[in-house]
Amino acid sequence: MTQCGSTRLRPPRLHPSRARPLACLTLAALALWPATGVVAQEPPSAIEYQVKAAFLYNFAKFVDWPPETFTRQDALFIVGVLGNDSFSDVLEQVIHGKTINGRAFDVRRLKGPEEAAGCQMVFVGVQETRLLPALLKAVRGTAVLTVGAAEAFTRQGGMMNFVVRDNRVQFEVNTDAAGRAGLSISSKLLQLATIVRDERRAEDTKSRRDR
Prior knowledge:
The protein is an alpha/beta fold. It contains seven helices and ten strands.
């Protein structure tokens, strides 16, 4: 039996319950992506998409949305993708048949930031990061988890961001942004993340320390 953290390459295995420790799930996902050099200069691989899609599924399992988010008991859990149709296809395959708290997933390809307010989670492709200000404006006052994969995404107000360190996919969490949206992120997830703060808040904190 392959143990948690094994380097054997294989498709993500996602368990529908929380019985399996999150750390094991995450380490198993991290082990899927071998060293590829400078990722930002290379086309994303299929396995990279699979790893990120597996992360999104686990993010959904360990984030609590406000009760008023779902107006009906049979409401879908909607994941919007802004840009990158190839990733949308992989995400649909990874989460096919899976549920979150009894809710089925629905992947939607967003034509623009204005469509994001109807989602519970939105992934922003690297090429669409320039639309982040418009996206944040569109989802202001709503409980939408924003996830990106570009430098400074979280420091500019996005909530979660994929980064590559030592040739492995890891993630950052902006707890300020999540708090404003009324989202509660499990401490188990935060323990595995790099915590960042809003640029303005970080500057204010530094200013107070320098006084």
